[in-house]
Amino acid sequence: MNPGVWRGMHSLQKDEEVLKHKLVPGTIPRVLRFGRSYAGILSFFLVLVVLDAAVGVVNPLIYRQLINKGILAGNERLIVELAFFAAGVALVDSALTFFQRQIAARVGLEIVFDLRTRVFVHIQRMSLAFFTRARTGALVSRLNSDVSGVRDAFTDILSTAVGNVVTVTLVLAAMFSLSWRLTLATLVLVPVFLLPARYFGRRLRALTRESYDRMAELNNLMVERFNVAGAMVSKIFGRPEDEKALFLRQAARVRDIGLTVSTYARLLFIGLGLVASLAVAVVYGWGGVQVVRHTLDVGTLVALISYLIRLYGPLTALSNLQVDVMTTLVSFERVFEVLDLKPAVTEKPDARQIPPGPVRVEFERADFRYPTAGEVSLASLESVAVLSKHPERQVLHEVSFVAEPGQMIALVGPSGAGKTTLAQLAARLYDVQAGAIRFNGVDLRDATLDSVRRTVGMVMQDAHLYHDTIRANLLYAKPDASETELAAALRDAQIASVVALLPQGLDTVIGDRGHRLSGGEKQRVAIARLLLKAPAVVILDEATAHLDSESERAIQEAFLTALKGRTSLVIAHRLSTVQNADQILVLSQGRIVERGRHDELLHLGGLYAQLYRTQFTAKPKA
Hints:
The chain has 25 helices and 10 strands. With 622 residues, the chain is of the alpha/beta class.
């Protein structure tokens, strides 16, 4: 079977359900606007496609003349000349095909690069609320599968639509000019060719769709079991046989579907080849009789058969062109859907820089509720039909306080009181709904995002380290840091001696989420990263939670030196870490219910004193 038929058969495997999808209004004009930047090279590409299709129609005519005027007439010179001419046409055809595919690859990869970069940068701009809702796998799929699907619009579909239309038109014109009777006979057989293709194609589409779903389930199973946390749960609960059985069931289903798809594909391949062979046999039979009766010459018969073989592939591909186009438009729509989602935290056109130097942090009657799913997410990224638009409960109520430059403000209170939310607002991971947060008099909503990121540093309770070297994780905070600065940060974070004992020192790869390090070691690397950044405002959310008492004391001493002159907000459940704070804010149900220094709050006898007694005066059970 010729390559055109095989490409047409592959097209039939695409899911026809996509035709039921209703595109978002304006998608097609937007796609065309996107293609404007590639208009020049795409025009040249289309010229090559048309030339390639036209050149492909020339050879049968050459062979007709070679047989009739050369071989049958005994004209050796003409035979040689036409043979060289046919070879030249073949070379031109090969060159056109090569350049056509090179340009298609170049344009396709450029489109993928452009869109993938846009989507990645846009996702990076999304607020933290977006990432707390979206499925990571769905985001990766948008960057990979959907963006790659977009590539087909300007290369495969253009070449299929234009090239095959030109090929079919020229081939039919040539066939009618050679013998309209035989041409009509072959066209009668076209439905016989397409019917099995459509039947098997529908079966293949359903199986292909199911194979994608099953493979996604299998991939999800492997991702969950192969990451460190998943592997730990599996080993702790000790169910290897159950895990094996689960994997075998899903893998077996993928295997069985693959075998069925292979069987149907092979039957379709054989069926199309058989129908094409029957059509060729009909033309040979009827045409051969005409040759014997001298109503048709041999060269014309050979040319007709050659054209017939070239005809079925393009016809098959064109029969499914609508599905191809719609599939690509849906991919475009899904990419545009992400690009159109507005970040919840944005930078104003006239945003101001936060002045460098010591920072005065001011919260003025700040109110906050977490955004609804409809405000920050997409249903398709959460695997739900409709996103909830009901307002979330209010988390903070009229929070007001001032942290002068160099002061340590401690945030304490029971779980769910709003401490972490308050810290995230100070880092502008979210924006308040009412009131204001100011750094040196500049409302964070009026500040440039770059200056906010440069001013604020944070260490969370569960410090995240990338699957890379310690050096790379540290340089993420300050890419131009010197070896001396790296060593000082490690020393001040009380982790230098540990790093020195590692096999490759700073260049040791620490694994997924830093799991090759202990909890305390991972936390101290994160603190070293913060110290290297040296921000004016430091936020510590239980930053010493994973450290033993000795390491905690060392870190506290390091903070006294490293954070001198810097404003710090420290969230603590262990009240021993914040007894020397300049001001302690006690939160309960999103409100500041007490404020003062440690001794003052103990003397007050309120919530802080209750928390303190719970931690330090509870007697161990006998």
